[in-house]
Design brief:
The chain is an alpha+beta fold. It has helices at 135-141, 150-163, 166-170, 176-186; strands at residues 4-11, 22-25, 35-40, 45-57, 74-75, 80-83, 86-90, 107-110, 123-126, 144-147. The protein folds into 2 domains: 4-75, no CATH class; 80-186, no CATH class. The strands form 2 sheets. The chain has a 5-stranded antiparallel β-sheet with strand order 2-1-4-3-5, with no helix packed on it. It has a 5-stranded mixed β-sheet with strand order 6-7-8-10-9, with helices on one face.
Length: 187
């Protein structure tokens, strides 16, 4: 009989959710008191929550309908991922406003190349890279690994885009619709 792990989460930064507990599937094996990022609302925007308590239960004893329940995404502050022996920084988990964090698995940064197919990475862009070579259009499609120093500048601009800083918009070489779609896919 399969047991599922569940976590009861309390979102502290969202006044619309204040005071209520929400059940999530827990693939991370969380402990009470840990801070976690989890999707909220129809757009599944990531917010930080505190784990109140956990539960292991069979499907028929689940605290919430398994067909409707969402999963926790990452521990707060968890930003690195190993791709074999190469460490990659995930753009996910970056706080960009009072309560929201960027999505995981959209953009990774590493110093070395990897076997992209082996790790399920759609596109690997190797330095030197420039904005006018379609880097942001590839990021819009998602699941991209940036290899090399220019990737840090691209990360900075993506973060500025999410925060709504105008200077980021003028330098990304994308149209308004593409910029909106990029910000939506990242946050």
């Amino acid at each position: 009989m399969e047991l599922f792990r569940f976590a009861a989460l309390r979102f502290l930064a969202d006044e619309n959710l204040d005071g209520r507990l929400f059940w999530y599937l827990d693939p991370l094996s969380l402990e009470a008191g840990e801070e976690v990022l989890a999707p909220v609302g129809m757009r599944d925007r990531l917010q930080c929550a505190v784990v109140e308590h956990t539960l292991a239960a069979r499907a028929e004893d689940a605290p919430y309908d398994l067909a409707l329940i969402k999963k926790t995404v990452a521990r707060r502050g968890e930003r690195t991922r190993m791709l074999g022996d190469v460490e990659a920084l995930d753009f996910g988990g970056v706080r960009f406003d009072e309560k929201h964090y960027s999505r995981y698995g959209r953009v990774l940064l590493s110093k070395a190349e990897v076997d992209a197919e082996k790790f399920g990475i759609r596109t690997q862009i190797v330095a030197p890279m420039s904005e006018d070579e379609g880097v942001y259009r590839e990021i819009l499609r998602g699941n991209v690994l940036l290899c090399g120093g220019e990737g840090k500048e691209i990360f900075r601009r993506l973060y500025a885009l999410l925060r709504g800083e105008d200077r980021a918009l003028s330098s990304l070489l994308l149209g308004e619709r593409e910029l909106f779609a990029l910000a939506h896919s990242l946050g």
